[in-house]
Amino acid sequence: MTKPRLFSGMQPSADSLQIGNYIGALMQWRGMQDDYDAFFTVVDLHAITVPQDPARLREKTRRTAAQYIAAGVEPSRSTLYVQSQVPAHAELAWILSTITGFGEASRMTQFKDKSQRYGSDQTSVGLFTYPVLMAADILLFQAEAVPVGDDQKQHVELTRNLAERFNSRFGETFTVPKPVIQGETARIYDLQEPTAKMSKSADSQAGVLYLLDDINVTAKKVMRAVTDSEGVVRYDRAEKPGVSNLLTIYAALSGREISSIEDEYAGRGYGDFKKGLRDVIVAEFEPVRARALELLEDTAELDRVLSANADRASEAAEETLSAVYERVGLLRRG
Ligand code: AQP
Q: Which tens digit of pLDDT belongs to each residue from 154-172?
């Protein structure tokens, strides 16, 4: 039996991924490879919707791919490739933009947030059409499942609407995908500002745990994490965001229930708790970091793996794209 398709990706917007990307995405991806025919993409075309330094972008793209592999995405089992190496993404995005309403695109909250942050003169049209490109990413592979954070839910909803609209206007063409949303427990917050989502391209790095950071740096950041004055290891997101965030990380990496960790540290201070967490994180990160750095020592081999996977992705993408061109009425080359 053929497996259902899955699509997901991350932007190469930093030298290293952070623990939120690891817990919220990579750990899930790793576990879904058995049940799905998965496409995992480094979405560089999405990354250039905000300014990037060209040489650094190439470097970050390789680093992101290396971290996917180091975290357990297997390029021999799943299709792991770089978005810009498969031109069908951009081609389908154009077609979908012609059936997307201007008002519909204007309602995307991520665009509103980002454009407010950068100001309208610094905001590109690419940033505005970002969700249409994301729809193309997903629909190109007829993906049924799209594992995303809850901040991306609105974009997957738009993707579903576009798929249904296209199907009803031009005939059954696209699989209508479903988001696989990671709930609040999978959302990781900044260690210094535990009410803000942890981000790899955050302005301050003090509260961000990067996968590729030196292990001593990571250990220090954990020990300096913001907590509170109560001194009790207890989950309470509203009253104790710092400690709750640390508990979420601990539980996700150790596979334990939050209540069992609370019990273990009952009557002990935050110092002990942080040391326990530090050890869990270091044990998880050390092999991933070592493997990623090893892969980055041989970029020729990494590039070879990526282009072989891009060939595989192109083949799958072309099937959808030629059906789309046909349905829309574009005259195909004879
Ligand atoms: N803090 C987080 N907690 C849980 N999951 C997270 N993800 C990101 N941050 C957290 C998940 O990681 C994937 C990365 O998606 P992306 O690279 O497209 O960008 P993002 O979601 O905007 O992630 P960042 O780290 O915050 O990147 P920048 O700084 O570039 O904006 C997604 O699956 C996301 O849910």
A: 999 999 999 999 999 999 9
What is the rounded CA–CA span in Å between residue 194 and residue 202? Answer: 13
Q: In which residue are the tokens 């060939």 written?
A: 311
Q: To test ligand 1's pocket by mutation, which of 6, 8, 10 has the most ligand atoms within 8 angstroms of CB?
A: 10
Residue 188: CB within 6 Å of ligand 1? yes
Q: Nearest C-alpha to atom 22 of ligand 1 is from which residue?
A: 199
Taking 70 as the threshold, does the pLDDT of residue 185 lie above it?
no
Ligand 1: does its nearest atom lie under 6 Å from the Cβ of 73? no
- The residue contributing the CA closest to ligand 1 atom 18 is 10
Kind of pairing between the strands at 37-42 and 5-10? parallel
Domain ranges of the chain: 5-186+299-328, 205-293
211 vs 296: CA distance, rounded Å:
14
Provide the pLDDT for residue 117.
Answer: 82
Q: Which of 199-203, 210-214, 278-282 has the lowest mean pLDDT?
A: 199-203
281 lines ligand 1 (CB under 6 A): no
The highest-level CATH class for domain 5-186+299-328 is alpha beta
* Angle between helical axes of 241-254 and 270-297 (0-180°, round to 10): 50
Q: Which letter does DSSP use for residue 146 in this model?
A: E
Given the candidates 1.10.240.10, 3.40.190.10, 3.40.50.620, 1.25.10.10, the CATH classification of the domain at 205-293 is 1.10.240.10
Distance 276 CA to ligand 1 centre (A): 26
- State whether the beta carbon of 305 lies less than 6 angstroms from ligand 1: no
Residue located nearest, by CA, to atom 24 of ligand 1: 199
